[in-house]
């Protein structure tokens, strides 16, 4: 019996020693220490998938469009009135006023967004009504954003025409999202020229004021892109000649100059030249539009000069486009 108590006492001592060694074990240090991100936002392509209307794949069957009207919008530009906009979209002035009850026709400001009645038919370049007023195929590239010193951000989205014929009224919504993909701000923007030709991409630009949410993202939605009727009296033929681009050594500004030549037999009351600045990676970093100070007579020419400034990386290339209207 004594031996049994001795063995039990020794076993208890061993157990206590084991427990003591466990309680005094030194924890293993972590292999890495997490750190907080620091620094300012750098130019980036948004990770948010871009909402686009792409040309259909010929190998994939696509349902025919329905006749359900889709609301369209028009952003008012300098010199436009409600009557002319109604004529442009082939809707009655009364219907246009009804669709925009809060807009005063005689007090419209540049940038006012008008709702075009969805029941109005679209027209193809030949003048025949299309099956549906849904936006035409267009490619919107991922937005590139640049933050300024005040904490705001300027974002560009390049629009590319996938159609063999010109498009007009290209309007894009840029949507600022927080880290949880919740909408914070929304801006509606248009291309600098009314016409978007195939092979002549143009960006839209939006500025988001401070403060910006942490880890923000920018999504885009195509609001409107309609077939353009270039025949008749709506647009006039014009070309650029003798273009010169002088980029500053630091790439933060560029001067573009040249001559607009009218190739039409009518007076052009409105002539625009758009200058688009790109960085070394092909990202749009600046945009400017020049307007002729006086009408351009048929067959005459007009010199132009404008400066385009970068909001981000240095400019390495400037593209120029021209548009003339009677």
Question: How are the SSEs placed, and which strands pair?
Answer:
Blueprint: H1 2-23, E1 44-45, E2 72-75, H2 82-88, H3 93-99, E3 113-116, E4 138-140, E5 144-147, E6 153-161, E7 167-177, E8 183-190, E9 195-196, E10 202-208, E11 217-227, E12 238-247, E13 253-262, E14 270-278, E15 284-291, E16 301-309, E17 317-325
Antiparallel strand pairs: 1-5, 2-3, 4-6, 5-6, 6-10, 7-8, 7-9, 7-11, 12-13, 13-16, 14-15, 14-17
Cα radius of gyration in angstroms: 30 Å
**What structural class do the secondary elements suggest?**
mainly beta
Beta-strand residue fraction? 35-45%
Taken in chain order, the helices and strands follow as HEEHHEEEEEEEEEEEEEEE
Mean pLDDT: 76
Domain module count: 3
Helical coverage, percent range: 10-25%
Query: What summary fits the major beta sheet?
Result: 5 strands, antiparallel
CATH architecture of the largest domain: Sandwich
**Using DSSP, what is the number of strands?**
17
The span between the termini is 120 Å
Low-pLDDT stretches: 1-70, 119-134
| CATH level 1 name of the largest domain | Mainly Beta
Which word captures the global form?
A: globular
- In the CATH hierarchy, the third-tier topology of the largest domain is known as Immunoglobulin-like
Please, how many helices? 3
